[in-house]
Amino acid sequence: QVQLVESGGGLVQPGGSLRLSCAVSGINVSSNPMGWYRLAPGNRRELVAGITSYGRTNYLDSVKGRFTISRDNAKNTVYLQMTDLKPEDTAVYYCNIRYRDRWGQGTQVTVSS
To answer: b/e per residue, 23-46, with b = 16+ CB within 10 A?
Structure first.
């Protein structure tokens, strides 16, 4: 049974950093495309960062150069390192297998002074 549990969110000041973690069970992150998402206008989940099974990454334009997605195959965990955070980054962040239509609780990121 696939389980994905996000953690690492919190309250940070603009310009600060956070690292989100996604502990995965039931599938191998090394063999599946993974992504981090957040809610966009229209209450739709927006892909913030993705990583393929080959290790290629892609990012939402607004986070390029600030966010980095990575994985630790031994821990079966996916990370999102967020730096230079901005108020517009405030959202609930979700991790998932790409194209999967089931979601967990996510983790709240709030960027505010």
So the answer is: ebeebebeebbbbbbbeeeeeebe
Amino acid in the structure at residue 12: V
Q: Which amino acid is at 68?
A: T
C-alpha torsion 8→27→65→93, nearest 10: -40
Residue 17, SS3 per DSSP: coil
Rounded to whole angstroms, the Cα distance separating 49 from 12 reads: 20
**For 43-91, what is each residue's pLDDT tens digit?**
889 999 999 999 999 999 999 999 999 999 999 999 999 999 999 999 9
Residue 74 DSSP SS3: coil
